[in-house]
């Protein structure tokens, strides 16, 4: 069994169609709960770390609060809370991107972050895919969200 660590930093993402039906910056604003973690091209358990934070399954039940200003947080079920600065970019496909912020960080000074492909979004559900490089192929950790507010 191969073990893969997800190290998805801000990098070039495969080009997707210019838009995803319903995707807009305003559509992301609100409180989302991550309801399920899936895998596309990967075996469950093959990814050890997501967002340099913990195993993907630790994100099940996490709450993501995204404000219109780009500030936000995600809270894991174990109580860990991470401040983030997020944005939506449709110039190279539909991409949700965020940077982790720590005490005193300014988003403009943080160089590393994460890019997730937006596969669908509407008023109540969102699906994001975090790319994992496997040699000459790309696989994905798939994150399924439900909007709670």
Please name the fourth-level CATH homologous superfamily.
Calycin beta-barrel core domain
Structure class = mainly beta
Widest sheet: strand order? 1-2-3-4-5-6-7-8
| Proportion of residues in β-strands | 35-45%
Q: Give the mean pLDDT.
A: 87
Cα radius of gyration in angstroms: 14 Å
List how many beta strands DSSP finds: 8
The outline comes out as globular
**Proportion of helical residues:** under 10%
Q: The CATH topology, please?
A: Lipocalin
Name a few traits of the molecule.
149 residues, mainly beta, Lipocalin, eight-stranded antiparallel beta barrel, 8 strands, globular
Structural commentary:
Strands 1-2-3-4-5-6-7-8 form an 8-stranded antiparallel beta barrel. The protein has one domain: Lipocalin (Beta Barrel). Helix content is 3%, strand content 44%. The protein has 149 residues and is mainly β.
Q: Topology of this structure?
A:
Layout: H1 25-28, E1 30-40, E2 63-66, E3 71-75, E4 81-89, E5 95-101, E6 114-121, E7 125-134, E8 137-147
Antiparallel strand pairs: 1-2, 1-8, 2-3, 3-4, 4-5, 5-6, 6-7, 7-8
Write a short abstract of this structure.
With 149 residues, the chain is mainly beta. The chain has one helix at residues 25-28, and strands spanning 30-40, 63-66, 71-75, 81-89, 95-101, 114-121, 125-134, 137-147. Helices cover 3% and strands 44% of the residues.
């Amino acid at each position: 069994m191969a073990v893969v660590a997800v190290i998805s930093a801000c990098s070039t993402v495969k080009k997707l169609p210019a838009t995803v039906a319903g995707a807009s910056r305003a559509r992301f604003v609100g409180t989302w709960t991550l309801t399920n973690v899936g895998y596309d091209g990967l075996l469950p358990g093959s990814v050890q770390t997501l967002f340099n934070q913990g195993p993907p399954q630790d994100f099940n039940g996490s709450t993501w609060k995204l404000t219109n200003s780009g500030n936000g947080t995600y809270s894991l079920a174990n109580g860990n809370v991470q401040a983030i600065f997020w944005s939506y970019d449709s110039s190279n496909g539909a991409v949700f991107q965020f940077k982790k912020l720590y005490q005193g960080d300014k988003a403009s000074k943080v160089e590393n972050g994460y890019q997730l492909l937006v596969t669908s979004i509407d008023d109540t559900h969102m699906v994001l895919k975090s790319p994992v490089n496997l040699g000459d192929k790309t696989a994905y950790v798939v994150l399924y969200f439900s909007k709670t507010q």
